[in-house]
């Protein structure tokens, strides 16, 4: 009598969803940032002492949105019309530390005379401000390293000023293209031979804040964000 074949038991394969790192916890000193003053020229700026980090970028790069994402939702005014930031806006973290929102550049609909005036104040601040210890440069991840971006990077390198680039609106790109763009920009910055670093960032999704906070804390001589709270480009 033929023996009955034993049925093969098929092992079920269970696919687990990819685990995402938990969002970085916002350091208290950024949450308590408050508006200090707006200055039309370098002469009207606060006393040149303490520590300042400037946020700079094209008018449509999401500079004010990034500032709000890293600090308070209503700290910096945002506008649907690029080019509205015409003043140097100062925000205080404590008595000695400030964040600075510089006028956006490169918006074609702004009159040429006004663009030249903004460029003059922008260049004067970056070149002459002694308490400026670093710059956060905002670039649209889809259109990075414009001619004016590169000019400002050269100015920063000439005075040994570190620059951390946020490739904003990273949520507009799929994960693969976003990482490729990050690697390409990182390589170009390396060839410029300045103290430059770069990361992906999305104000809309709040992604990349942990890495940015860690960089700012290093410049401002605050204790760094804990490793388990850091969110990097790998989490995008």
From TrEMBL:
<dbReference type="GO" id="GO:0005829">
    <property type="term" value="C:cytosol"/>
</dbReference>
<dbReference type="InterPro" id="IPR030393">
    <property type="entry name" value="G_ENGB_dom"/>
</dbReference>
<feature type="compositionally biased region" description="Basic residues">
    <location>
        <begin position="1"/>
        <end position="10"/>
    </location>
</feature>
<dbReference type="GO" id="GO:0046872">
    <property type="term" value="F:metal ion binding"/>
</dbReference>
<dbReference type="InterPro" id="IPR006073">
    <property type="entry name" value="GTP-bd"/>
</dbReference>
<keyword id="KW-0132">Cell division</keyword>
<comment type="similarity">
    <text>Belongs to the TRAFAC class TrmE-Era-EngA-EngB-Septin-like GTPase superfamily. EngB GTPase family.</text>
</comment>
<dbReference type="GO" id="GO:0000917">
    <property type="term" value="P:division septum assembly"/>
</dbReference>
<keyword id="KW-0131">Cell cycle</keyword>
<dbReference type="Pfam" id="PF01926">
    <property type="entry name" value="MMR_HSR1"/>
</dbReference>
<keyword id="KW-0479">Metal-binding</keyword>
<dbReference type="InterPro" id="IPR019987">
    <property type="entry name" value="GTP-bd_ribosome_bio_YsxC"/>
</dbReference>
<dbReference type="InterPro" id="IPR027417">
    <property type="entry name" value="P-loop_NTPase"/>
</dbReference>
<keyword id="KW-0717">Septation</keyword>
<feature type="domain" description="EngB-type G">
    <location>
        <begin position="49"/>
        <end position="222"/>
    </location>
</feature>
<keyword id="KW-0460">Magnesium</keyword>
<keyword id="KW-0342">GTP-binding</keyword>
<feature type="region of interest" description="Disordered">
    <location>
        <begin position="1"/>
        <end position="21"/>
    </location>
</feature>
<protein>
    <recommendedName>
        <fullName>Probable GTP-binding protein EngB</fullName>
    </recommendedName>
</protein>
<comment type="function">
    <text>Necessary for normal cell division and for the maintenance of normal septation.</text>
</comment>
<dbReference type="GO" id="GO:0005525">
    <property type="term" value="F:GTP binding"/>
</dbReference>
<keyword id="KW-0547">Nucleotide-binding</keyword>
């Amino acid at each position: 009598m033929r023996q009955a074949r034993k049925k093969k038991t098929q092992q079920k394969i269970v696919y687990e969803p990819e685990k995402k790192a938990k969002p970085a916890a916002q350091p208290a000193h950024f949450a308590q940032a408050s508006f200090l003053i707006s200055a039309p020229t370098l002469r009207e700026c606060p006393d040149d002492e303490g520590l300042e980090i400037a946020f700079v970028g094209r008018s449509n790069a999401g500079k004010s949105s990034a500032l709000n994402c890293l600090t308070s939702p209503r700290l910096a005014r945002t506008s649907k019309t690029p080019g509205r930031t015409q003043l140097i806006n100062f925000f205080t973290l404590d008595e000695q530390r400030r964040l600075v929102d510089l006028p956006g550049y490169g918006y074609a609909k702004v009159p040429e005379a006004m663009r030249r005036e903004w460029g003059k104040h922008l260049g004067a601040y970056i070149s002459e401000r002694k308490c400026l210890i670093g710059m956060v440069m905002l670039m649209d991840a889809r259109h990075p390293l414009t001619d004016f971006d590169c000019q400002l990077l050269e100015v920063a390198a000439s005075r040994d000023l570190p620059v951390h680039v946020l490739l904003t609106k990273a949520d507009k790109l799929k994960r693969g293209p976003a990482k490729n763009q990050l690697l390409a920009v990182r390589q170009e910055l390396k060839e410029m031979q300045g103290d430059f670093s770069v990361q992906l960032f999305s104000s809309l999704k709040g992604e990349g804040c942990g890495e940015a906070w860690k960089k700012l804390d290093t410049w401002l001589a605050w204790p760094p964000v804990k490793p388990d709270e850091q969110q990097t480009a790998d989490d995008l």
